[in-house]
Inverse folding.
């Protein structure tokens, strides 16, 4: 009976060791995702777009080739 208890404890510890690894791997992956979320700053993208100079609009009054709306 004692041998059986010892064997059961060995099996139990092996099972727990096997299940600890995936759990710890999942926890590490979750931590990586959390860190990536902290590092991601959407405002930096907006600042880059805002800093980009806007294309100047063409003044249509000065353009001789432009034909505006025609009244009938």
């Amino acid at each position: 009976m004692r041998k059986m208890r010892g064997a059961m404890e060995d099996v139990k510890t092996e099972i727990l060791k096997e299940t600890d690894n995936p759990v710890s791997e999942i926890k590490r992956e979750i931590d990586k995702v959390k860190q990536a979320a902290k590092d991601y700053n959407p405002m930096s993208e907006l600042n880059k777009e805002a800093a980009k100079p806007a294309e100047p609009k063409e003044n249509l009054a000065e353009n001789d080739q432009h034909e505006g709306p025609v009244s009938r």
